[in-house]
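Appendix B. One record, verbatim.
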Amino acid sequence: MNKIRVLIIDDSALVRKMLTEIINSQADMEVIGAAPDPLIAREMIREMNPDVLTLDVEMPKMDGLDFLERLMRLRPTPVLMISTLTEKGSEVTFRALELGAVDFIAKPKIDIVSGLQDYTSQIVAKLRIARHARIKRLTPASVSNTSASSQTLSTPKNHIASTEKLIVIGASTGGTEALKDFLIQLPSNCPGILIAQHMPELFTKSFADRLNKLCRIRVVEAQGGERVLPGHAFVAPGHSHLLLRRSGANYMTELNQDAPVNRHRPSVDVLFHSAAKVAGKNAIGVIMTGMGKDGAAGMLAMHAAGAYNFAQDEASCVVYGMPREAVTAGGVDEIIPLSDMAKKVLSRAFHIGAQAVRV
């Protein structure tokens, strides 16, 4: 068995030691080197050709983000960012994901060595995912400031938006950028949207705020009890499941802290099952890049209830796990490249609306 060869880049000797012990304790991976700064790491990458890098953000001689940007331009390599899970650190983390990092994880607590075991399962799982992720070369266009006004799709003339149409989206690894690319194209009167993205709770509000600044639609972290209106998107908070419920003629958001489903809270399956029950054929499901099977059963339930469902295609996914499972389960109507997803979903939404009027 070929082991996953990992290079650690971190200015803390203690963190390097901790990560080395975690990684080397796994039968399928090994640390081939540990660099205290990006300049040393650059030479080690050339000599050792690692499968995956772990990369700290704040380091001497060169900032982690600067190094990541240069790496993805010249030698695209799977990268797992070591991030401080704070509101302040979230913007840096999102920038790293935008530049091409596969995922991020909390900075290990260096003051309690025994507490390192709490990180073990997350670190090794994310490294395994990163090893098989699709990494694209960074180009100037991929990191330029995106203008919502220049890329927003238009709605058909004479179309009247209706809350009867609803879009529900599930995503995991690679989903932050996929969601951004999708939402930024939507017009201000698109159907209401509910999103379940696997993400720590300290990051979901910052993620929603970031999208809100980029998009024509209003994007917020769901609080529960909001009316789902056209032109509004609600991101599930990292501490709760997001569900859809109905109050009279209106769709409403609902949060609960029931047990994780498929090891996740928020769970895509929980959101999709609620959409199947409450919205039925008026819902449009979208499942995007991510590892695992969360969302497959819920999307099948939506399909059985009359919803029309899209899955992101393998070529445009960072990790083709969740979409593949949804396709295999039989709940997907169309498999679409991410670049075409917004156009296809809007076309379907307006088509459903026309059918509803005729009926």
